[in-house]
Specification:
The complex is a heterodimer of chains A (about 110) and B (about 120). With about 110 residues, chain A is an all-beta fold. Helix content of chain A is about 0%, strand content about 40%. Chain A is globular and about 40 Å long. In chain B, about 0% of the residues lie in helices and about 55% in strands. The chains are: A mainly beta (about 110), B mainly beta (about 120). At the A-B interface, loops of A face strand 9 and strand 10 of B.
């Protein structure tokens, strides 16, 4: 059982928006503004999408955005594209001795 | 462009030692501001942090694996390695190496593609 809770799957049609939640506790997601999100196409290296809850690294599309409320962080993908079909997982800072990850969410683009 | 590549045996016998290496290109493992990290994902499960090494040699490990894990670095080869002793079927997983920012926001900036290690009885 993963430390952070994500829905197992979400789906959306091209052009639509979807949101993936990541629920933790007041010791991780809720304590620090340090949630990160990753995209993983099977067989490839996971890719950093967002860090510090909502900051995008250089080169990541503005279609990916992040937010947080209390112990739940969210990733929103707008203008869904076929290539967005992948696994998405979250991670939170929780101190030097542990790194909680979400269980991952499979996004299907219909 | 920083790249990481895992390498090592894809099959390990139960009770033996799993050994993997991560070769880093485009950056030096001696650079500060980063943790060089191992993460794994058992089939059908979520990701599990194994541990990291800092350029100074400082290491930290997942408490559940601490008694069996060693992460080391070879600066001459620009590599870092993972050893996991006394493996069981529960250690079957895809193993990833990653570079983690520790100066600002603790995110995993770069990952390898991962390597599947199966433990046989």
């Amino acid at each position: 059982q993963s430390a952070l809770t994500q829905p197992a799957s979400v789906s959306g049609s091209p052009g639509q928006s979807i949101t993936i939640s990541c629920t933790g506790t007041s010791s991780d997601v809720g304590r620090y503004n340090l949630v990160s999100w990753y995209q993983h196409h099977p067989g490839k290296a996971p890719k950093l999408l967002l860090y510090a809850d909502s900051r995008r690294p250089s080169g990541v599309s503005e279609r990916f955005s992040g937010s947080k409320s209390g112990n739940t962080a969210s990733l929103t993908i707008s203008g869904l594209q076929a290539d967005d079909e992948a696994d998405y997982f979250c991670c939170a800072y929780a101190g030097p001795d542990t790194v909680p990850f979400g269980g991952g969410t499979k996004l299907t683009v219909l | 462009q920083v790249q990481l590549q895992e390498s090592g045996p894809g099959l390990v016998k139960a009770s033996e030692t799993l050994s993997l290496t991560c070769t880093v290109s485009g950056a030096s493992v001696t650079r500060s501001s980063y943790y060089w990290t191992w993460i794994r994902q058992p089939p059908g499960e979520g990701l599990e942090w194994i541990g990291y090494i800092y350029y100074s040699g400082t290491t930290r490990y997942n408490a559940s694996l601490k008694s069996r894990v060693t992460v080391s670095v070879d600066t001459s080869k620009n590599q870092f390695s993972l050893k996991l002793t006394s493996v069981t079927a529960a250690d079957t997983a895809v193993y990833y190496c990653a570079r983690q920012d520790m100066a600002t926001s603790y995110y995993f900036e770069t990952w390898g593609r991962g390597t599947l290690v199966a433990v046989s009885s």
